[in-house]
From TrEMBL:
Keywords: Endonuclease, Hydrolase, Metal-binding, Nuclease, tRNA processing, Zinc
Self-association state and partner proteins as the record states: Homodimer.
Record-given protein name: Metallo-hydrolase/oxidoreductase
Cofactor (UniProt): Zn(2+)
Organism: Pholiota conissans
GO molecular function, one term: metal ion binding
InterPro entries in alphabetical order: RibonucZ/Hydroxyglut_hydro, RNase_Z/BN
């Protein structure tokens, strides 16, 4: 049986009535995304995400190629208040989650940048834990755990072509039976088949049938997810295989209220102080004497750009403009006199050439891109196995030097991520 996983199927599904019978609390956690504002309002009116003040990034894995005792394979957790989104899910990401303060049970979406193993080998293992996976029963009769409601998705996965097939086949051939549902939405490149699942295997228990195949429009995938407070877009970036970068954008937030501007007026007109709440939301308040107080204008929300492996992310320059945080790989660096493994024949040019030929970047390339898109902060990740990132003096010297190479282009300090490093992204003052 061929399962239709195109946009139409998704639209029909979510504009239908089946979800409306669910309770609002269930919908808040489980209902999937929307492509357009209109669809959102018709299908998700009872599932508005609450605004959040904490936006935090935790690096769960910062290695390229091979993991080590100090650097795990790629994975990054973005905490939006209490909700967690994961970007990439390399081998043993579950272990890293357990070592961190990120709550695994709060993961609601997983975004895969590309299907290289160091970014995806941990995905189905994590899904099995997250979605109550089991290996079947030996008794006769059907396993009650297989009665999974696949009209709604408990977990959403996004990734390029192959992500859905990888998950489906991996779960099927390991006899993993999920106790909860999931859906995979794929970002299709123009050269990809526009429909189909890229596998002959039919969806197994737990997979929702409304996974979208999202086509590029004007070179990117705008608003693959959007709600009232946050949206996600993506664009292709150059690597050795199809790869994407994600941009997470917070909607404008309430402006900063200066109480000294309002309180004397409220006291003078004996207006209840509770109107401060309206002013805080940017609303205007009419006082008893006819004066109108205007709340502060809304501030720009935060923007985070998370790139997959790349030797050139320029196709996403426009989307990445003015990012509060840019996370860019820096797999290879030329560090003569600092890195004892430097070959005498190496030069900056040969190292960069080698990095590009494998679809990767040097710190200088990352710094130049950060400058070009006007990023406020740059964090490097995805380091070669030779940069262990441990606490030794030599490792610190090497990582400092890598940061400085990027900073020489970016003209600002650059941070080299370590595993389990966590940073908050704060709102701008204006
Ligand atoms: Zn990689
Ligand atoms: Zn890769």
């Amino acid at each position: 049986m061929v399962i239709c996983a195109d946009d139409d199927a998704w639209t029909k599904h979510f504009c239908g009535t089946s979800n409306r019978a669910k309770s609002p609390s269930t919908l808040h956690r489980r209902l999937p995304l929307c492509v357009s504002e209109s669809i959102f309002h018709r299908s998700m009116s009872s599932s508005i995400r609450k605004s959040f003040s904490t936006l935090n990034v935790t690096f769960l894995g910062t290695a390229s190629a091979q993991p080590s005792t100090t650097r795990n394979h790629s994975a990054l957790a973005l905490r939006l208040g209490k909700d967690v989104w994961l970007f990439d899910c390399g081998e043993a990401t579950q272990h890293q989650l357990q070592k961190s303060s990120v709550k695994m049970g709060k993961i609601e979406k997983i975004f895969i940048t590309h299907t290289h193993g160091d970014h995806i080998f941990g995905l189905t293992a994590l899904m099995a834990s997250l979605l109550n996976g089991a290996g079947g029963i030996t008794e006769e009769g059907s396993d009650p755990r297989l009665n999974v409601d696949t009209t709604i998705a408990a977990l959403e996965v996004y990734g390029p072509l192959g992500t859905r097939a990888y998950v489906r086949n991996s779960l099927a051939y390991t006899h993993t039976q999920l106790g909860s549902s999931y859906v995979v939405h794929e970002l299709r490149f123009p050269s990809d088949p526009p429909s189909g699942d890229f596998t002959m295997l039919a969806p197994q228990s737990g997979e929702c049938h409304f996974g979208r195949n999202i086509q590029q429009v004007d070179g990117c995938w705008q608003h693959i997810y959007k709600d009232d407070v946050i949206s996600v877009s993506a664009a292709p970036i150059h690597h050795s295989v199809p790869c994407v970068g994600y941009v997470v954008t917070e909607a404008p937030v309430a402006g900063k209220v200066d109480p000294s501007k309002y309180i004397p007026e409220l006291k003078r007109t004996r207006t209840p102080m509770t109107v401060m709440r309206q002013l805080q939301q940017g609303e205007s308040v009419l006082l008893s004497d006819g004066t109108i107080l205007h709340g502060p204008a809304r501030r720009k929300g935060r923007k985070i750009v998370i790139l997959g492996d790349t030797c050139d992310p320029s196709p996403m320059s426009a989307l990445a403009q003015d990012a509060d945080l840019l996370i860019h790989e820096a797999t290879n660096a030329h560090l003569p006199g600092i890195d004892p493994a430097t070959k005498p024949s190496d030069t900056h040019e040969t190292v960069q050439e080698r990095a590009i030929s494998r679809g990767h970047s040097t710190p200088q390339m990352a710094g130049a891109f950060a400058l070009r898109v006007g990023a406020r902060r740059l964090v490097l990740n995805h380091f070669s196995a030779r940069y262990s990132g441990d606490d030794s003096e030599e490792s610190r010297r090497i990582m400092d030097a890598i940061g400085q190479l990027a900073a020489s282009e970016f003209k600002q300090n650059v941070v080299c991520a370590t595993d389990l490093m966590s940073l908050d992204i704060s709102l701008r003052e204006q």
